[in-house]
What we know:
Two copies of one chain form a homodimer. The first copy, chain A, is built from 16 helices and 19 strands. With about 475 residues, chain A is of the alpha+beta class. Chain A folds into two domains: about 5-195 and about 370-465, Aminopeptidase; about 200-250 and about 300-365, Alpha-Beta Plaits (2-Layer Sandwich). Chain A is globular and about 80 Å long. Strand 11 of chain A pairs antiparallel with strand 11 (about 300-310) of chain B.
Amino acid sequence: MMDDVLTYLEEHYERHLEDLRTFVRIPSVxxxxxxxxxxxxxxxxxxxxxxxAGLTDARVTDTPGHPVVTASWTNHPGAPTILVxxxxxxxxxxxxxxxxxxxxxxxxxxxxxxxxxxxxDKAPMLIxxxxxxxxxxxxGALPINVKFLFEGEEEIGSPNLGAFVRDHAQQLxxxxxxxxxxxxxxxxxxxxTVSARGLVALEFTVRGPGKDLHSGxxxxxxxxxxxxxxxxxxxxxxxxxxxxxxGFYDDVVPVSPAIRADTAALPFNDEAxxxxxxxxxxxxxxxxxxxxxxxxxxxxxxxxxxxxxxxEGAKTVLPSEAHAKITCRLVPGQDPDRIRERIEAxxxxxxxxxxxxxxxxxxxxxxxxxxxxxxxxxxxxREAIRSxxxxxxxxxxxxxxxxxCDTFRDALDMDTVFFSFAVGDENxxxxxxxxxxARFQEGAxxxxxxxxxxxxSVDAVVTATR
Amino acid sequence: MMDDVLTYLEEHYERHLEDLRTFVRIPSVxxxxxxxxxxxxxxxxxxxxxxxAGLTDARVTDTPGHPVVTASWTNHPGAPTILVxxxxxxxxxxxxxxxxxxxxxxxxxxxxxxxxxxxxDKAPMLIxxxxxxxxxxxxGALPINVKFLFEGEEEIGSPNLGAFVRDHAQQLxxxxxxxxxxxxxxxxxxxxTVSARGLVALEFTVRGPGKDLHSGxxxxxxxxxxxxxxxxxxxxxxxxxxxxxxGFYDDVVPVSPAIRADTAALPFNDEAxxxxxxxxxxxxxxxxxxxxxxxxxxxxxxxxxxxxxxxEGAKTVLPSEAHAKITCRLVPGQDPDRIRERIEAxxxxxxxxxxxxxxxxxxxxxxxxxxxxxxxxxxxxREAIRSxxxxxxxxxxxxxxxxxCDTFRDALDMDTVFFSFAVGDENxxxxxxxxxxARFQEGAxxxxxxxxxxxxSVDAVVTATR
Lengths: 466, 466
């Protein structure tokens, strides 16, 4: 019954691939103000692509930040309705010198496409658009109702999507969210992600003297902000890797024995992992495995640390300030604001004499997310993946965060099912990000199967979500 | 008797000032390879300026690095001979955004000239050239023999000047070195510098994973190089500011009670100092005053620390590496190579599991320098300064380093007298470096007096240095 749709997807593959190339060439870096026009250009490209797929109401809506793109096809009253979520913004490409090909060209090598954002989330979000086009062109209708919501601020924590979702609750209402963002755990085994960690971000500055000083003349008599910040951030962890901030673990809901057993059963070993990432040893909170540390335990990581002279050669400066960026990943039970306050208090308390510490205005925070294991949307996902890969997907956690899940649940009372065909090893947020092009078709077949299977599950959907 | 020379200096002041403007507009940044042509241009400018002063043998000599400029006037057999030392290279201007006027224009405000290198060392080294011109043009002769040696690598530790001096020992031989580099302690009281601290520089990299990773996916399971480097560099000092590296203080020759008494008698108080530098408190090795910490005690200072994402906004990266630059200031007794080895051993020992540490190839090191307090060159300097400022200069130490002093003593058995008219508060190695233009004349009068007074001291010179 899906043959007409699958045939259409095969026949239009080259054109859809060219679409992807065009899409990734737009440097829609949401974190950097200078790229705001590119982010808008990407939004307009997405809206145009939705229109060309056959959706008549595609539109770009402004927010106080980057725009939101929406569209819908809702001509099956009574059928299940999903809200497809994805994001068209990307991370900065730094460090540029470590890319083997330019980040905003679409370079294809060995069956992969290399570009910033191709895996996170441009190729994955393009797949449901392709599938919608295939249904509408090959058959004139979708088997279910589909709404689309693509944002341009995922990489900066979705600061404006919450208000947008609340303001457009009626328009966006669906049985649940099907997220094209997320990603499979590994390339060799299909997986479904059932949880994501929360996030809290901090940035602070340590100031000593009012101006940069000559370290020969002044060294040894003033507190060097680089010494101070080192001591402060070093105090955030014990030597064993456990976070030392008072109360950091207080509200953590412990991992259940069942989840720990499932995780231990996954095909994973530290040696292969260390080869993959090129690190000499694993390191982290005692008493947990690597996967448990990545998925089910909270973390505190420095993402940036800088001060003084960082160029070529020596410069004998005692700098006036030093800076650090921190993000924490949170698990169920931890409140982002409370964690932030505890870290700020810790750093203030550990600021030595002779320096002052100031925090940047609070940015985004999001609690952790977990979907009920028997959710109908998960069951259908399992079925769709089995139809493409011939085996049941394994249930896994996700180390990263999708803060909008919390908004969807709070504002629209909808759960989120992650259904992405990116893979976690595709260098997202790093140089040489890539996407496996075979998954551009596998994903399209899986989304096709999902739409069909969900249409057959109308009773379960109604029972579970209405 | 000096009136003809002083009159000449007055009459040609505007032209000499224009020379200074031209000189500081050449961005002769020796630490950055891209500026090598500018450094050469500065050398050629200096040689041309020596020629126009009336010196017939001015020349630019290549080294494996930046060139050396020499010239001489030695037509008084039997009279004292000095070797005038200075440097025409400058520090990088970073951070550029903190300059109030462009670093390589000559901006004059409130009697000061603002430019990178104007105080360190372009205006001070131009003064003896002006004075030589004045003697030769007004009188047809100098009262003593003068040789000039200007290098272009002082800011990178003079890596090639040692070999140059050894290779040209005969040509450069003099009774002692009179250095136009150095600087007065304060603007309100004339001083003579009788010691300089030594220097050793290190740079190292801490590596964890082989590539930058997503801190959401991988955070908490690998040692983040930023955490590791923070812990490592924090371990270099105790909480009280004392250096924790084993053996760091072992070979230090203690400060004599006489020097401590002299230093305590200087017009200095911490409160005024803190207002000057804009810091909330002094901080450093217990048991010593601020001036003792700056002049007579060894230090270990971070000059740069960096890794991860340092741009606008957040980037959730677990970086593959982190970097630090360190310099130590040394005092008599400390061997630069031995101190470097001890610090490297400390850092290796404190590198936690899951990371590796590698050191950049060793750069320059220099032991501390101290001139005998009764040196004839110092006595003449005291006399020359008294003739301009009407009071005896105070004897002070210098926190910074002039590594070439050690070379002059080792290779040519010559002491170095510091005779500079820069002032220590002129933002050298920092944004908004400036030079007090009144000192462009005061210095010229003092150098004129020095030449005359040294000519009268021929017997003392012969006794002391031949």
